[in-house]
Amino acid sequence: MQFSEGQTVVYPHHGPATITSISSRTVKGNEIEYLKLEVHDTKLSVSVPVASADKVGIRAVLGAEDMKALFDVLRAPTVDEEDKWSRRMKDNQEKLKVGDILTVAGVVRDLTRRNEDKGLSLAERDLLRHAQGPLVTEIALSLGIENDEAEAALQEALNPNGTSAPAEPAKTSGPGTAAA
């Protein structure tokens, strides 16, 4: 993958980020090129060697075909999961560590539906909020919409019949915010 300053990419463990600079450093006598990334949600600054970008999973923002696959995962039936919350939590954490956006979408789908049916432990609710953030941001970037519109699109995909309210919002805008 070719990189350029100002390009938006996705860093699996942090979500969408902008390449703020591409620079070289000398490490043990070797000249190494680095990408300096600024993560959108947290403004965290991360440096990654260009040669390691593929290995750590840095990728372009999803295109139209990939976005369709993402929404297909969100609309798909829930996967059978562990009954014991601690094992389910561990399984979902392992899936999120992979950083694959379709896997993240599956975790969000399954946790959202479980929350609607049986409820979630406090730790699982936190995990759901954590998983929704980068997903909402990527939907917004890919479709060229605002985060609140992306969150609505996510909830609509998770609840296509409109029979239930959103399980857990990714973020709240604060008091006095009117619902659309």
Question: What keyword list fits this structure?
Answer:
Methane Monooxygenase Hydroxylase, Chain G, domain 1; single chain; 6 helices; 45% helix; 2 domains; five-stranded antiparallel β-sheet; Thrombin, subunit H; 180 residues; disordered C terminus; alpha+beta; 5 strands
Structure description:
The protein is of the alpha+beta class and 180 residues long. The protein is 45% helix and 19% strand. It has two domains: 8-60, Beta Barrel (Thrombin, subunit H); 64-158, CarD-like, C-terminal domain (Methane Monooxygenase Hydroxylase, Chain G, domain 1), CATH 1.20.58.1290. The chain has helices at 53-56, 64-75, 85-98, 101-117, 122-143, 147-158, and strands at residues 8-11, 15-27, 30-39, 45-49, 59-60. Strand 3 and strand 4 (45-49) form a beta hairpin. Helix 3 packs parallel to helix 5 (122-143), helix 4 packs across helix 5 and helix 5 (122-143) packs across helix 6. The chain is globular, with a radius of gyration of 18 Å.
Distance between the termini: 39 Å
Largest sheet: 5 strands, antiparallel
The top-level CATH class of the largest domain is Mainly Alpha
Give, in order, the helices and strands.
EEEEHEHHHHH
Order of strands in the sheet with most strands: 4-3-2-1-5
Overall geometry comes to globular
Structural class: alpha+beta
Stretches where pLDDT is under 50 for at least 5 consecutive residues are 163-180
Query: What is the count of structural domains?
Result: 2
CATH architecture of the largest domain: Up-down Bundle
Number of helices: 6
Radius of gyration: 18 Å
How confident is the prediction overall: mean pLDDT? 85
Q: Please name the CATH topology of the largest domain.
A: Methane Monooxygenase Hydroxylase, Chain G, domain 1
Percentage of residues in DSSP E strands: 15-25%
Number of strands: 5
Question: What is the name of the CATH superfamily of the largest domain?
Answer: CarD-like, C-terminal domain
The proportion of residues forming helix, as a percent range, comes to 40-55%
| Oligomerization state | single chain
